[in-house]
Amino acid sequence: MVAKTPSSEATGEEAPGAQQKIRVLIAKPGLDGHDRGAKIIARALRDAGMEVIYTGLHQTPEMIAEAALQEDVDAIGLSILSGAHMALFPRIMGELRKRGLSDLLVYAGGIIPDDDIPAVKEMGIAAVFGPGTPMEEAVRFVREHVTARHAQSEEEQ
Amino acid sequence: MSAPVSAQASATSLIAALVERLIQGDRAAASRLMTVVENRRAGYREALRLITPHTGRAHLLGITGPPGAGKSTLVNKLIECYRAEGKTIGVVAVDPTSAVSGGAILGDRIRMLGFYQDPGVFVRSMASRGQLGGLSAATADVARVMDALGRDVVIIETVGVGQDEVSIAGLADTTLLVEVPGMGDDVQAIKAGVLEIADLLIINKADREGADRLANHLKSAMRLVPYLQGAWVPPIIKTIAAEGTGVSAVAEAIARHQAYLNENGHLDEKRRARLRVEVLERARDLTLRHLIASLQQKGALDHLLDDLASHKLDPATAAHALVERIGVRE
């Protein structure tokens, strides 16, 4: 948004950034029924001061994109263990584009073979966090990228 | 500091464009405007100014009660009822912010996922953020955006565990208090002060032991509230929301309350009272923020801390000295 204006300083209210929380959607696309990892990352993001919208298991690409739109999130974390990422990720990105959300930060976690990572990134997934990634790394990634995006959109307007 | 006039102007036109799209029913614009008003970002007052003429049409339904009472499940079933009647729905679901980290996990959506392909249902999650008086104002503003989006019914769902739900319940035209059996004695139901603002009392999970006892407790607690002749007396309705039992009775009671509100100017009266409280609350917040900012700016408090710490000065006198310095006199 816009940089500070004199009026905002005088009234002390329209303070850009002051109450700007990072909002993240954690979603589990597809059919695998295991959301421990998703819950752990949701909790880690919350503990880092972010607002996490958690939508549970078995999300379709349409559900994920619609939730992202209605919740106006800054980032989407996709947790996937089923191996269906090559089929599901392009559909998710397509549904996001359909709703004008192609500039959202989307990253993935779970089981994604190294061989698939270049193709996954090609789809617009910004990062892939495999098993054993320290929580802090994923949290830092979200914070840094979303903050950069916030700053960028301030400049643009 | 040079005034970024052009930036301000472009923010204004950006907001105007968003509101224009909102009025046309654009969900993405609605969502972005909710972020603007919730965060009180630049342009939020402009947004509210432009939105307000398009509000007042929706029926505002407040649902509050303890965690796990089944509020989201009940909301989900009520949405089904209203969608069958062709009414469009907006849901504002408020979950608590962690006092430790300032973060939150917002999970109410999980129970309303069935409507993701239905453009007639818009669900927005909010964290309570624990800000001074800010929650009720932010919630009211997000509900206003839903209203301007043209939703027939706007449902505001909040966890009721402290004082917050009293002011939040005050945001709605019709307020439902959801209780469950086995959550403590009858004093629990009275002490939160929510009984007075409830228009419907729901006993959910009514198949559990203690439902009748809770109903009796609520009945006797209500006898302590004086109801004027002809005034609305909150019905007590038992539900098992997860199975849909009693939900149509709830919808009927809401409709009856709405009809009551529409008679004899009750709705106008209720909304006026609400607006009065809201404006005063906002004015109080603004004043406080102003005051605290200017107090901190002058470093006046730091100056007094030495005397306070060495017991030469008492806190009451210090507070007086502080506000006198910025021109406030009793």
In short, what is this structure?
The complex is a heterodimer of chains A (157) and B (330). Chain A is α/β, with parallel strands linked by helices.
How does this model look, in words?
The complex is a heterodimer of chains A (157) and B (330). By secondary structure, chain A is α/β, with parallel strands linked by helices. Helix content of chain A is 45%, strand content 15%. In chain A, strand 1, helix 2 and strand 2 form a beta-alpha-beta unit. In chain A, helix 3 crosses helix 4. The longest helix of chain A is centred in the C-terminal third of the chain and has 22 residues. Chain A starts with 5 loop residues before the first helix and ends with a helix. In chain A, 41% of the residues are buried. Chain B is of the alpha/beta class and 330 residues long. Chain B has a seven-stranded parallel beta sheet with strand order 4-2-5-1-6-7-8, with helices on both faces. In chain B, helix 8 links the parallel strand 7 and strand 8. The longest helix of chain B has 32 residues. Chain B starts with a helix and ends in a 5-residue tail after the last helix. The mean pLDDT of chain B is 86. The chains are: A alpha/beta (157), B alpha/beta (330).
Biggest chain pair contact, residues each? A-B, 47 and 49 residues
Read across the widest sheet of chain A, the strand sequence of neighbours is 2-1-3-4-5
Provide the residue-averaged pLDDT of chain A.
Answer: 84
Distance between the termini of chain B: 35 Å
Q: Structural class, from helix and strand content of chain B?
A: alpha/beta
Question: Ranges of chain A with pLDDT <50 over ≥5 residues?
Answer: 1-18
Number of strands of chain B: 8
- Uncertain segments of chain B are none
Strand arrangement, major sheet of chain B: 4-2-5-1-6-7-8
Q: What proportion of the residues of chain A is helical, as a percent range?
A: 40-55%
Name the overall outline of chain B: globular
- Supply Rg of chain B: 22 Å
Beta fraction of the residues of chain B?
Answer: 5-15%
Instruction: Report the mean per-residue pLDDT of chain B as an integer.
Output: 86
What is the percent of helical residues of chain B? 40-55%
**Largest beta sheet of chain A, briefly?**
5 strands, parallel
Structural class of chain A: alpha/beta
Instruction: State the end-to-end distance of chain A.
Output: 7 Å
How many DSSP H or I helices of chain B?
Answer: 12
